[in-house]
Amino acid sequence: MKKRALISVSDKTGIVEFAQSLIGYGFEIVSTGGTLKALKGAGVPAIDITDVTGFPECLDGRVKTLHPKVHAGLLAMRSNKEHMDFLKKMDITPIDIVVVNLYPFKATISKPGVDLQTAIENIDIGGPTMLRSAAKNYQDVAVLVDPKDYSVVLDELANGGITKDTKFRLMYKVYQHTSYYDTLIANYLREKLGIKFPEQLTMAFDKVQDMRYGENPHQEGVFYKEAFTCEASLAQAKQLWGKELSYNNINDTNGALDLIREFTEPTIVAVKHANPCGVATADTISNAFNKAYSADPTSIFGGIIASNREIDKDTAEQISKIFIEIVVAPSFSEEALAILTQKKNIRLLELPGILSAVPMNAFDMKKVLGGLLIQDFDRKVVDEDAMKVVTTKAPTQAELDDMIFAMKVVKHTKSNAIVIAKNKTILGIGGGQVNRIWPTEQAIAHSLSSTKGAVLASDAFFPVDDYCAQISAKAGISAIMQPGGSVNDEKFIESCNNLGLSMVFTGLRHFKH
Questions:
Q1: Side-chain half-sphere of 457: how many Cα atoms within 13 Å?
Q2: Among positive and negative, which fits the CA dihedral 421, 427, 433, 439?
Q3: For labelling, which of 1, 125, 242, 261 has a CA lying 20 to 30 Å from the CA of 385?
Q4: Distance between CA 343 and CA 366 in Å, rounded?
Q5: What is the 3-state secondary structure (H, E, C) of 378-434?
Q6: What is the DSSP letter of 184?
């Protein structure tokens, strides 16, 4: 019985050469539409699908391969006598190889201003149906969706035939491919309908790289990016220098990017183990780095730097004096690159969209064993109209500005979190503690600069004990910002009044677990 291959592809990479090779191995080629035209134009003899089905392509090409003579040829089990007798009776030729990749739905909806009807017309129907039919009968049919597999199949044909193991692997790739494709369609329609949290959730990701290892050397790790990533995503960064990023590099850099997006003035964020360890705003990015470094020159060592301005020569010279793992910025000047690329162990990431807003349809996700937690991004810091001065003494405008600055950092510090700031520079951070006393002590102890006239921000309300107010006042802190909301708020307010502190309630908690 003659061997037959059906070829219908949107991505025509390597398809002419592959088809020519199949003919050399005794296959006849059946094809459709644009693929048929491309093959014949290259001198490859191919049979029009309409000559197989006896039915014309119709409905503007919507119906080409949806026919029993195609699907019986795909699904007939060669070991089943009844199946093969039926094919013979109906004059249906079995199909042994299927090469199909689908209408470019992802590319279509990625175009600016694409309308719904255009998107719908790029939903493939016949392609997925053929793929699924062929894959179900993988013992007898080799089905290819990826041009990378052409050489594998040809090598095995040269050695006597396509192995069952290869056919099984190709089967897997089909269902992975069609699942991804359908997920793109479903998510596009879900967005159009404004459905936030569907009853069933599927997500589409593309593999970026295998990691050298995961969080620790004995763990394996991989980096995937969402099928559609926003401009602010780390997955969109271009690496200009340095060895590939590790699992921890990516996690920590993402934390730095989350924080840097809070600021519009020239700002430097230093992060260590996904927690901020130095943040400062200034008139220039060079001055911002100097302030951030001076506030905690110990913790920044081996850390990650995020900048919301171009890294210039002066900033690069400062960075080059210490060991920094990664610098991510919207751009680097030529002088800065010349300086920083002298350092072998630094990675430089260019992310022009570093300050782009996170889309409203993006979510904050956390994987737990057997499940997935999903929530909106925490898009607020404070609501200035809702803030309330609760003490007798009111903060100055400078203190208020510093408290809002500190609260931006609190928001991205592991709870329980306390941050001390002065002149839009972080002096001390206490985070990841199981009570609010310890991070307060920690933030004060870690403030290497004078805390006189500094302010303190907390991610949640303080316990009734006024110890935190007492040690803050003793350190010279003049103002506190916190959400409020405790049944014992009045007692803490009284303590602040007695100590001469001003305090502002925001009504917004910023836990980060």
A1: 32
A2: negative
A3: 261
A4: 35
A5: CCCCCCCCCCEECCCCCCCHHHHHHHHHHHHHHCCCCCCCEEEEECCEEEEEECCCC
A6: H
Say whether 37 is catalytic: no
pLDDT per residue over 280-322, tens digit each? 999 999 999 999 999 889 999 999 999 999 999 999 999 999 9
Tell me the one-letter amino acid at 14.
G
Instruction: Please report the pLDDT score of residue 1 as a whole number.
Output: 59
Helices (H) and strands (E) in the chain, counts: 18, 21
DSSP structure string for 425-461: EEEEEE-S-SSSHHHHHHHHHT--S--TT-EEEESSP
Rounded Cα gap, residues 101 and 11, in angstroms: 7
301-305, 323-327, 374-378: segment of lowest average pLDDT: 374-378
Choose, from 12, 67, 83, 136, the residue flagged as catalytic. 136
For residue 137 the two structure tokens come to 């009968």
Q: Which range has highest mean pLDDT (58-72, 391-405, 438-452, 482-496)?
A: 391-405
Residue with tokens 């979190």: 417
Catalytic residue among 12, 273, 313, 393: 273
SS (H, E, C) 26-82: CEEEEECHHHHHHHHHCCCCCEEHHHHHCCCCECCCCECCCCHHHHHHHHCCCCCHH
Q: Is 446 a catalytic residue?
A: no
Question: How many Å separate Cα 263 from the centre of its chain?
Answer: 21
Q: Is the pLDDT of residue 474 over 90?
A: yes
- Using CA atoms in the order 78, 83, 85, 88, what is the torsion angle rounded to 10 degrees? -80
What is the secondary structure of 228-282 as a DSSP string? Answer: S--TTSGGG-EEEESSPPPHHHHHHHHHHHHHHTT--SSEEEEEETTEEEEEEE-
Structure tokens at 394: 């009111």
Separation between Cα atoms, residue 245 and residue 276, nearest integer Å: 19
Q: Contact, 322 vs 301, CB < 8 A?
A: yes
Confidence of residue 65 (pLDDT cuts 50, 70, 90): confident
Average pLDDT over residues 194-215: 91
pLDDT per residue as tens digits for the range 333-343? 999 999 999 99
pLDDT at 510 over 90: no
- Element of type H or E holding 100: strand 97-101
Task: Report the C-alpha gap between 223 and 210 in whole angstroms.
Answer: 6
Residues β-bridged to residue 419 = 429, 457
Contact 99, 7 (CB under 8 A): yes
How far is Cα 496 from Cα 22, in angstroms, rounded to an integer? 83
Q: Are 388 and 505 in contact (CB under 8 A)?
A: yes
